[in-house]
Structures are given as C-alpha cells and as structure tokens.
C-alpha cells in the first residue's frame, strides 16, 4: 500500500510530467487519499451507484455457455447492465464526486472512441456541472454518433487537430487545459492509466466490481472461483474485477488483450503518456499503431499495475484475435440472450478456454464489461463486407 501510495508498481507507474502539472497532480493525490476515506463521501458514492447506475449488478450463471464448454461454471459479472451500458460510469461518478469535494466547478475529459466521453457527459448532466470533452478530429469523424450523444447530454466537444487528431492528442489538449485552469477544473481520466495518482483513483472506484462479485460468488458457490477473466484496454475494468481477489492466491487473474494491440504479451517497459508501463514501440521508439476491432481496447500501452501483475507473475495475460472475439460476440448473443460489447467478447472467448480445462465443481467469473448495442452496426457492416467478397 505504501508503495502504491507513491504510484509505483514495481518498476512501473510513477509520474513523468512537467513541473506545473506535477504540482496539480500532487494536490490531487493528497485530496484523493483523504477524501475517499471520509464516511460521507463513501455514502454519497454508494448512493449514486445504486440510484443512478443501478448497482449492484448481478452475477449471472451462463448456463448454456457452461454446458457447451463442458467445464467449470461460467458466471458473468453484469457491468453491461449499468446505466450507459458499461463499467466506465463507476469511475466517472467517483471522480466527479471527488472533483466537487475539491471545489472544482468544471469537468474536462479526453475521449478516443467516445465511450468515456459519453459516460462523463451523462454524469455531468445529472450533477449539473459544465463538461468539456477533448476529442481528436479524426476520432470525431469516425464516431459521429457519440459526438452527437455527448452534445445531447449538454457537453461541449472540442475537436483537437494537433498531431494525428487521435486519443493521444486529446489527452495532451486536456492536460494543457488542466495546467491553465487547475483552480476550478478537474480532469476526469477514463482508464487505469496516466501519471500517479490516476491509476490508483480509477482502481479505487472500479473495485466495486470485485467487491460485489466476491460476495456474490461466495453466496452462490460457497467458495472462491478458480479464475477471474477480464478484457484489457487501458486496464480499468480488469483491475476493478481483480482488486479484491489479488490477495486470494488460489484465484487465477487472467487478462484477455487484443492480438492486434498486445501491450502485455509483447510490450517493453517504456514511458508513455506520463507513466511507465509495458508498451508497444516501433523501431524508432514511438508508440506503435494498433488496430483492434474493439475501439475500447485500441491502446499501445496498459495500466502500470497490470504491467507489474504481469512481470511479477500474479496475473496472466493472453491474446485474443478480432475473429475470435467476433465469434463469441455472436455466440453469447445466440445462447445466452446477451449481446456483449466487442471488448467484453475478448474476455468471453478466453474465459471459455479457461472453463473447459476445469471441473464442473469449479467456477470462474468473466467480467462482462459492457453491452454490445454500440457495436451492432459495426458487426453488421463487417458481415455485409464478408458476404460481398
Ligand atoms: C472502454 C471499455 C473497455 C476498455 O477499457 P478498460 O479501461 O481496459 O476497462 C472495455 N470494455 C468496454 C465495454 C469499454 O467500454
């Protein structure tokens, strides 16, 4: 814990930012560790998780999938049933409450595919706090509907044309805004990445996933699961799903990452976006371009704690191809009546392999990070293209 307080996870994490920004982050770290422990803060967080997000989310036995796999019972942690359809809202609610306690009157955020932007705009609307979302120009073109959603929700979406007009440029623009306006502005970061204290903040608020899941599996099975499986993009749903099981050495922690962006299985230690992690580099040392079919997993780096869990051997990470994810996107829809997000379909695909190797007395938990409504158009178009070949 002491180590984590400094934002250091083995050799990973830390904070590699200019001095002005470091001062803002130091204040954020101090306030976070103090405020997040206060009883009225905890009560308020739980209130909104229940009344606005709809927690707790069920832990559903996927009985048809289990039967087909023929091994351990497969339980799905249903983050897809949260308001806005994914786990991201847990972190957003926590950070906005923190921002308000710190006296901020304005929220800014970055978004790539638009999912974190939509979650942030949603909660800012409910909390009646102004919201500015930085988004790369290219990403805005690709994700027109999410831009429209954010605007419907009352957010201002600022196009970023510098660099390549992608996520990294949006992060840089948001950080620039923060340094200039830190007195009234809070930067709400969307995944378990970035300089300290963000990875620890995001883990803290997403840990509700494993806090519930651990209680639920013991109620249902009377014992711990053999494994917890989650997909990893930046790593927030996975670290939230792992958190309360990390100390339970008998529980395997398994991350599924896209074969098209394999930061954990093929990355090398490097500083990316202000923190050190396992990351995919090109020969010239620049971050490598990635292209997962799941927009939320398309990131060349990974949270520092996952980098450490991997190198220390506590967690295991495997790659899943876009085709395998697509297969389980359809399979879960067909056999369980649940259309998963393409991101989550990576976890399902690998989770079924894990379940097959275990006995029917055992159980595993797969974190279903989000619902697939957002992906139906894309899958439809991919199928059309396939059929036209
Ligand atoms: C954003 C997103 C992810 C990836 O982000 P993490 O920080 O790795 O959790 C995974 N699943 C869904 C549904 C998402 O929206």
Structure, explained:
The chain has about 400 residues and is an alpha/beta fold. It has 2 domains: about 15-45 and about 90-200, Rossmann fold, CATH 3.40.50; about 55-85 and about 205-389, Rossmann fold, CATH 3.40.50. About 50% of the residues lie in helices and about 15% in strands. It is built from 17 helices and 14 strands. The protein has helices at about 1-5, 20-35, 40-55, 65-70, 90-100, 115-125, 135-140, 145-150, 165-180, 200-205, 210-220, 235-240, 265, 305-310, 320-335, 340-355, 375-389, and strands at about 10, 10-15, 60, 75-80, 105-110, 130-135, 155-160, 185, 225-230, 250-260, 270, 275-280, 315-320, 365-370. Strands 3-4-14-9-10-13 form a 6-stranded mixed sheet, sandwiched between helices. Strands 7-6-5-8 form a 4-stranded parallel sheet, sandwiched between helices. A two-stranded antiparallel ribbon has the order 1-2. α12 links the parallel β9 (about 225-230) and β10 (about 250-260). α5 crosses α6, α5 (about 90-100) packs across α10 and α6 packs parallel to α8. The radius of gyration is 20 Å and the shape is globular. Bound molecules: pyridoxal-5'-phosphate (PLP).
SSE layout and pairing:
Layout: H1 2-5, E1 8-9, E2 12-13, H2 19-35, H3 39-53, E3 59-61, H4 63-69, E4 73-78, H5 88-101, E5 106-111, H6 115-127, E6 131-136, H7 137-142, H8 144-152, E7 156-160, H9 167-181, E8 185-187, H10 198-206, H11 208-221, E9 227-231, H12 236-242, E10 252-258, H13 263-266, E11 268-272, E12 275-279, H14 304-311, E13 315-320, H15 322-336, H16 342-356, E14 363-368, H17 376-388
Parallel strand pairs: 4-14, 5-6, 5-8, 6-7, 9-10, 9-14, 10-13
Antiparallel strand pairs: 1-2, 3-4, 11-12
This protein binds pyridoxal-5'-phosphate (PLP).
